[in-house]
Automatic annotation (TrEMBL):
Stated name of the protein: Strictosidine synthase conserved region domain-containing protein
Residue intervals of the Strictosidine synthase conserved region domain: 1-65
Key words, A-Z: Glycoprotein, Phosphoprotein
InterPro entries per the UniProt record, alphabetical: 6-blade_b-propeller_TolB-like (IPR011042), Strictosidine_synth_cons-reg (IPR018119)
Family to which this protein belongs: Belongs to the strictosidine synthase family.
GO cellular component labels: endomembrane system
GO MF assignments: hydrolase activity
């Protein structure tokens, strides 16, 4: 949580290759990521996606093919802070759970406000013990559940909302079976099931 609050870029994507004796050889594929979270293989077979929660964006990293070792921004300025990414049941889109939303009825989100004030972020992590930061985030976060659906190029094609957080708040994971969304949250001790249409 300290890294998220301070806006540090300490996240990494580790690549593990195995030699002939199946001995693992880890190496850093990407570093400098902002609170790296979800990882999902892309159906192209050559790349994968990594969410940067604190930066509200998703990075595409090419693990094989002609662009091997390169990376680019897959999507940015998301309406929330992305957590896990999963391929949809159709295989033609990605479902991204938003740990928190970035809009507010008052003005901007608390975390977006802190983004422009590094001295406040630094002060928070100096004063408040790590074990209380999640509770504080829960208090200031808007009670809202959101999932965005991205096409295979990173464009938002659909979004699902629980504007009062009644069914689920702070979506950490979204999967589907074609008819229903299955939602996980670090705020809940259950898996939510909601129809995709309706």
């Amino acid at each position: 949580m300290h890294d998220f609050f301070e806006g540090k870029s300490t996240g990494r994507l580790i690549r593990v290759e195995f030699d002939r004796n199946l001995k693992p050889k880890p190496s850093v594929a990407l570093d400098g990521l902002g609170f790296a979270n979800g990882v999902q293989l892309h159906p192209d077979g050559e790349s994968l996606l990594v969410s940067e929660c604190s930066r509200a964006k998703i990075i595409r990293y090419f693990h094989s093919g002609p662009k091997r070792g390169q990376h680019s921004v897959f999507t940015k300025n998301l309406p929330g802070f992305p957590d896990n990414i999963r391929i949809s049941s159709s295989g033609q889109s990605f479902l991204v759970g938003m740990a928190a939303v970035r809009h507010s009825d008052q003005f901007i989100s608390f975390m977006d406000f802190l983004g422009g004030h590094p001295w406040i972020r630094w002060g928070i992590v100096q004063i408040i013990p790590q074990r209380y930061l999640t509770s504080i985030l829960t208090l200031v976060a808007q009670k809202y559940g959101m999932v965005v659906e991205l096409d295979l190029n990173g464009k938002i094609i659909r979004s699902y909302h629980d504007p009062t957080g009644t069914v689920i708040q702070g979506v950490s994971q979204a999967s589907d079976d074609g008819d229903f969304l299955y939602l996980g949250s670090f705020h809940a001790d259950f898996i939510g099931k909601v129809p995709k249409k309706g």
